[in-house]
Amino acid sequence: MKLFFSPTSPYVRKVRIAAKELGLDDQIELISTNPWENPPELADANPLGKVPALMISDNEILFDSPVICEYLDSLNREVVLFPVAGKSRWDALRLQALADGILDAAVMIRLDSLRPESERYSDMRERQLNVIRRALRYLDSEMTRLIGPLTIGQVAVACALAYLDFRLPEEDWHKVHLKLDCWYATWMERESMQVTMPPLG
Ligand SMILES: N[C@@H](CCC(=O)N[C@@H](CS)C(=O)NCC(=O)O)C(=O)O
Questions:
Q1: Does residue 52 have its Cβ closer than 6 Å to ligand 1?
Q2: Any atom of ligand 1 within 6 Å of the Cβ of 49
Q3: Would you give the distance in Å from CA 145 to the centre of its chain?
Q4: Full domain range(s) for residue 17
Q5: What is the pLDDT of residue 89?
Q6: CA-wise closest residue to 72 among 9, 31, 10, 22
Q7: Closest residue by CA, ligand 1 atom 19
Q8: Is 63 part of a structural domain of the chain?
Q9: At a CB cut-off of 8 Å and minimum separation 6, what does 124 contact?
Q10: Does 198 reside within a domain?
Q11: Are 98 and 64 contained in the same domain?
Q12: pLDDT under 70 in the chain at which residues?
């Protein structure tokens, strides 16, 4: 399998962490791709022009990190990141949706920060910061699910928190959300987190 990948994309990182947790990372070749340069290979693979996209074979491609993660999960029956049914499935999917929403908000802020100062949207930044802060407060109430068995929810949350530290370090959530901070510190020790660290800078 080939994964269109960018080393700083948090959505790609989610897929790579999931692959590592599933023991499938050796089967995935990383194709270095900068989606902002509009490479035609990426547009051919994913009409949305985004990473991650997973090429399973020449004519079988998946895109959107939740879809790719669920596909990878289907390849390993020993580890289950997506509970098959019932409440545990909806709990995992809700956590993933929440974490992906944090990422969407943080990426929007990041893209805005790359504009010249006079062209930035301060209202949008404030709105997205509020989204992130509300979502973190919500996560405080989901601690029991974060501590439970490994699911895609935890992978996604770890990835979202790591991206906040990477791109929005001034939003120091660690001091406000102490239980989450404690959970995250333990999660950061996993090999899947260590080997998928984005480059510095
Ligand atoms: N919902 C998508 C989001 C993917 C995404 O936005 N990727 C960014 C990189 S972090 C991208 O490729 N952006 C290029 C663009 O928006 O044109 C997922 O979960 O995979």
A1: yes
A2: yes
A3: 18
A4: 2-74
A5: 97
A6: 22
A7: 65
A8: yes
A9: 108, 112
A10: no
A11: no
A12: 201
